[in-house]
Amino acid sequence: MNLIYAAHQPMELENGRVTVLMTNNQNVYFEMAQALAGKNDLLRLIADDFSELHLSTALCWDADLSSAPDLMDKYGSALLKKISNELTVDQRQQLLAKQQELLTAIQDTLFSVDLPLEVSLDDGFQRLYKYARPRLISSANATPYDIIKNDLNIHLELNDCRVLAMKNIANFLLPEQFKAFLQLVEESGLAVFLLEFSEKQQRAYYQNADVYWVDEDFVDWHL
Questions:
Q1: Which of 12-16, 29-33, 85-89 is the least confident region?
Q2: What span, in angstroms and rounded, lies between the C-alpha atoms of 212 and 200?
Q3: Which of 59, 53, 52, 57 is nearest to 19 (CA)?
Q4: Fewer beta carbons within 10 angstroms: which end of the chain, N or C?
C-alpha cells in the first residue's frame, strides 16, 4: 500500500518492513504528525488495488515513547476480551467457582445493614479480569526497546494488521537496537511507518529500512 502526503511522492508500506520518513523541515514534520493523529487530512492511504483506506481504521498511531499511553491502557480492553473469549471449559468453571466464593463472602457482609441487599453472579469474565487489573510486568517494560517489542507483540496477539506508526524512534534506540527492531518487524509481518525529525546525514542509522526524505525546501528524496 502507499501512504501519500499531499503534493509529495507516495511512500510504499510493505508487510514486514519499516518505512521511514526523515525530514528536517519543521512544517513537514508538524503537518505529518498532525495528520497521523487524525487532526488534518493531508495523508491518504491507498491499498494495492488502488482503493482508498480510512486512515483512522487502517493505521494505528502510537506516537512516541515519551508521550504514548500505557500499552495496557490503550489495548487492555481488547486484549482481555480476547483472553476471556478463549478460556477453556475448565478455566471457565474454575473462575466461576472462585467468583461464587467471593460473591458469597460479599453477600455475608451485606447483612451488617438493615436493607434487603443481594449480589448476583455475573459470568462476564472480562469484568473479572478488569477487577484483577492485569498489567505488564515492570521489568518487562523497563527500556524503550522493551516497550516497542511489547507493542508489536500486542498487535500480533490481537491479530491487529493495521499499519503501526510511531515517531522519533531514533531518540530512544541505539543503532544495534534499531537493527533488532527491524528484525522484529520482519518476523511480525506488520507494516511499520516511522516519522523522524532528523538530518539527512544520519541516514546510516536507518540502513535496511525503506527511507524517504523531505528537505528544508520541500524536495522529496528516496534514499
A1: 85-89
A2: 10
A3: 59
A4: C
d(CA 176, CA 103): 52
Q: What is the structure's pLDDT at 110?
A: 92
Residue that the C-alpha cell 533488532 belongs to: 180
Average of per-residue pLDDT values in the chain: 90
> Looking at this protein, which amino acid is placed at residue 190?
L
Burial degree of 88 (CB within 10 A; 0-12, 13-18, 19+): exposed
Distances (CA, A) of 59 to 119, 193, 218: 43, 9, 25
Q: Is the per-residue pLDDT at 207 higher than 90? A: no
The gap from C-alpha 64 to its chain's centroid, in whole angstroms, comes to: 11
> Can you tell me the mean pLDDT for 208-215?
93
pTM for the whole structure: 0.86
Please determine, for residue 74, whether its predicted confidence score (pLDDT) is greater than 90. Answer: no
Rounded Cα–Cα distance for residues 24 and 198 (Å):
5
Report in angstroms the alpha-carbon separations of 187 from 53, 72, 180, 181: 25, 23, 11, 10
